[in-house]
Structures are given as structure tokens and as C-alpha cells.
Please model this.
Amino acid sequence: MAREVLAIAGVKTTKPRRSAATASFAKPRDSHAAPAFLAGASAPAKNELEAALLAVSAVDGRYRRSTLGLRQYFSEYALIRYRVRVEIEWYLALAANPEFDALGPVPSTTADRLRAVARDFSLADAARVKELEAETNHDLKAVEYFLKERLAVETPTLPREIVHFALTSEDVNNLAYALCLKEFTANELMPRLDGLVGTLADFAHRYRQVAMLGRTHGQEASPTTVGKEFAVFAARLARQIEQLRRQEYLGKLNGAVGNFNAHLFACPEVDWVEVSRAFVEHFGLRWNPLTTQIESHDYMAEMFGVAARIATVLLDLARDMWGYVALGYFRQRVKAGEVGSSAMPHKVNPIDFENAEGNLGLAVALFHHLAAKLPVSRFQRDLSDSTVLRSLGTAFGHLTVALAALGRGLDRLEVNHERIGRDVDDDHAWEVLAEAIQTLMRRRGLDRPYERLKELTRGRAVGRRAIRQFIDTLPLDIADRRCLKSLRPRDYLGLAAELVERFAPPARPANPASNKDSRKKARHALRKVTSE
Model:
């Protein structure tokens, strides 16, 4: 079955070899042809289109251009590569341990050659692993057999049976997933999120003094400023990002039930607790000493909780932007050749914000399920977490698509000063000053201030003339009356602009470097694979 899947994907495979458990280890194929399904922009456009048309998931189909960078972390190829990396590092860690007598020191040049197997891991290498999996029906055992093949070629004098020594599959898998999450977050997700905060902060500071009517329960309310409302989202998002930035990534290496049973029995002279700790921490992960067969995934639940909150904040942003476009407060720049409606030629629809909203809803649902499911495993382990972990890319894929859509939508926005000004200066807007009047009346000790303003304004059309006539009836001194009569809705902004200046994330400097630079660097390794 694996060979058929590889053939559909475009990977050339050889005929099945003898069982890897008994075969003498032959030299792997020299072919490193890059299939279209992973080649991204370097692949022929026709092949990319065909792959998009045949994809089952929209993340890999319609939206593949937005998610190409995720292949380096969440594809089947990426998972195998991370597993290979962990296995090789474990082999070298054992070789460097003087208490472990089954494997002597490995020269640095030999260690470099072994690390190159993971560093230069190709699609043809991944295809070979899938061939071995087709024979063994075990994905991690296939990685072990693949590495034994490569050792036979690269370093034939080294003992091959030390590959995967005393490990259970989950010793490798948990570290592979921790690394993919850690590196994806640093290289892909954080630059995108930081870029979005920067965009929102730019809007906040640029429009911090542009008055507009607020809306509570959908109804006109006390005025605010355009920039202040962007600042709210920038600050909310920045807070969640900081929590994500502090996220710990845990790892374990302690055998089939978490007790170092095989390790201690085979080599009691080795301090396996210290070996495990040092090995996990050298990846930049936090060591977890108390687990069952699997790392408990609590840190993943924490991470996905933050991711769900980020997506929820962004969903709120998308809906508000949609609403402001509907009100006419924002215009969308028209793109030449674009069609808004198949029937109504005049339409310029807020499709980017709608696209973001839909994808964010899917991301939130997936993150919630991941956070609730992954920490739960029967006894010392069951396999239900394994299949769920393979959906990490789908969850982050929908979030990534949404971030791209939000970026496009915000890039097209223009503040419609005329429309916003027309609302805030309209005669009916004067009713929002009722709050200011009744609050000053309270300070001056006047009777029933709230109730009197309620009688004047609630459910009635109240304009500038009615408000001023009411002010004239109040027993206030000349200064208070003059202050109230000079107040306009567009001036009743409180500290909106100052709050932006003091507490909003800072605006970006003029002509900032493109946010795409960091993502290009993150995809460098993937391009190297596909250009072989």
C-alpha cells in the first residue's frame, strides 16, 4: 500500500527488497529526484496545480500556497527526518559515553557524516523509509532499518545494532514532535504573529486621533477612535504571543514504560537518568523524568490552549473588520481584474476577513480537541494519541491560512474619513453626550441625573438642539454650562489617543524589512532537499 501512495504522490520507488530484519544492508539509491508534492515554488506549475486539485484537505489544496512552509515541519517527510535526527543523535550520545562499552568513541569526521544523513535527508531517503514501512508495518522500525542501511555504507565498521538501542518508538517520537513544534513556532509562526501585531500597531498609532462612534450591542455608543480599537487587538494578541514565546517543550527518554527497564538491565553501570536528562536538554527541550511510555503531552495542551486563544482573538478581529467594512468605515482597495460577485458587478466583498473567520473557527476546534485529547492515554499508553498528533499540521495550517488572509485584508483597508465623520458629526450622534452630561450632574449633586437623561434620550431622536435646551434647564454655573455646550461628539474621546501612545505596542519603523525574510530562511533546508 505504501508503494501505491508514493506512486500517486510522484515518488519513484524500487521493487521491495528482502526483509530489512534479515537482509545484508545494501547501499541506498543514489536518486534524489524531488517530487512535485514537496517542491513548492521550485516545482513545475502544472504539477503543483495537479497536486492542489487532487488534495483531500483544503490546507494542501486550495490554500497550499499559504502553507508551503509547514511542509518542513508537519509533512510525513518532515516527521521521518526529525526521527532520523533523534536516532542519530542518540547513537552519537552513546558513543560519547565512556561508561557504555558497546560502542567506542566516534571520530568527529565520522560523526559529521552521520549527522549529514539527517541534515541532507532527501525525499528519496524518505521514500526508502516508506518502502521499509510497507514491509514491517511499523513506521519507527522502518527508520531504524533505514539507518542501519546507511551505517553499512557510510561507516561500515560501526556496530549497527546500537541503532535504536534500548529505545521504545515513543522515545523518538516525543522528541521529534517537540522539535517540530519548537522550530515551527520559532521559524514560522512567531514571525507571522509578530508581523500582524506590527500591522495592527501601525493602524493604532496612525489613526489614534480619528474619532468614530463606538458601538455596544450594535447600537451607537460613546465615541472612540479608530486607532484605539486597533490598539485593543494589538495588545490582546501581543499578550498571547508572549505566553507562546515562554512555552516550554518537554521531552523524555526512558523506555517502554518510563522506568529505564531495558537500559538498566543491559548496562547497569551507566547513569541512565543523567544520560537521558543531558540528551533531552541538548535539543533545547525540558526533560520530563516521570512519564509512562509516552511523554504526557501536558505541555502540548498548554501550547494549543494559547494557540486557540490567539485564533479566537483573531476571529474577533476578523468579524470587527468585516463589520466596519459593512458600515462603510473602511474601504477596500480594488484589485484590477478581481470579481466580487458572479451576479453583481459592483461588489467588493470582504472575502479575506470571511476566509480568515472560517479558517480560524476550524483552527480553534482542532486546537481544543488536541488540548483535550492528547493528555489522555490508557494505562502506560495507547495509540490514540499517535493518529491525533498527525493532525498538528492541519490545525496550524488553518491558522496559517487565516493569518495570510488577515494580512491581505488589512493590507487592502483604507479608512473612510468622510463616512466616519458623517456619522460622528450627524445630529442624531449628539445623544451619546447623555453619558457626559449625567456624569457631570452627579458630580455637582443634581437630583436624578441618570433618570432625567434617560427620559430625554431613550427611544427618542435627540439632536444638538434638544441637548442644548436640556443643558439650559440645569442649575449649573456658567463654566459648567459653557463646557457642556462646547462639547461635540467628536471631542468626547476621553483618553483614547493617550492610551494608544502609552500602552499600545509600538509602531514599526518606516520601511521595515519584509516579514517574509525570516520565513524564507526557515524554508532554506526544504529548498535544499528539492534541488538535489
About this structure: The CA atoms of residues 149 and 207 lie 63 Å apart. The longest strand covers residues 219-225. Confidence is low (pLDDT under 50) at residues 1-42, 521-532.
